[in-house]
Amino acid sequence: MPELSLENIEKLLDNKLEPVNTKLAAIEEIVSGHTEILDKHTDILDSIAKDVKNWNTEMTMVRARLDRHDIWFKQVSEKLDLKLES
Questions:
Q1: Is the pLDDT score of 1 beyond 60?
Q2: I want to staple 82 with a disulfide (CB 3.0 to 4.6 A). Which of 42, 53, 63, 77 is the partner?
Q3: In this predicted structure, what is the pLDDT of residue 65?
Q4: How many CB atoms lie within 10 A of CB 60?
């Protein structure tokens, strides 16, 4: 039986933990790859969200403009004594 010294215990632990360290390194590499993909997806989603927000703002402005035009058409038709049909 080997002598119980700190050096021998450290060597034994190193030998026992080597497979665990190898697996952890492989897992770390996989997670790193997933993190990069997740970052790209997040950037794409941010871009889509920005486009949707801009589109919603534009549609709100268009609706307001159409409402204004409807009011103007009604005012003009009243002044000209015309009946607007839907």
A1: no
A2: 77
A3: 97
A4: 10
End-to-end CA separation in angstroms for the chain? 101
Torsion (CA) 76, 79, 80, 85 in degrees, nearest 10:
60
H or E element in which residue 69 lies: helix 6-79
Count how many residues are written for the chain: 86
Each residue's pLDDT tens digit, 12-44: 888 888 988 899 999 999 999 999 999 999 999
Cβ atoms of residues 79 and 71 within 8 Å? no
- Determine the Cα–Cα distance for residues 46 and 53; give it in Å rounded to an integer: 10
- Name the token pair of 51: 């486009």
pLDDT of residue 85: 83
Residue 27: the pLDDT is: 94
Please name the residues in contact with 2: beta carbons below 8 A apart, sequence gap of 6 or more: 8
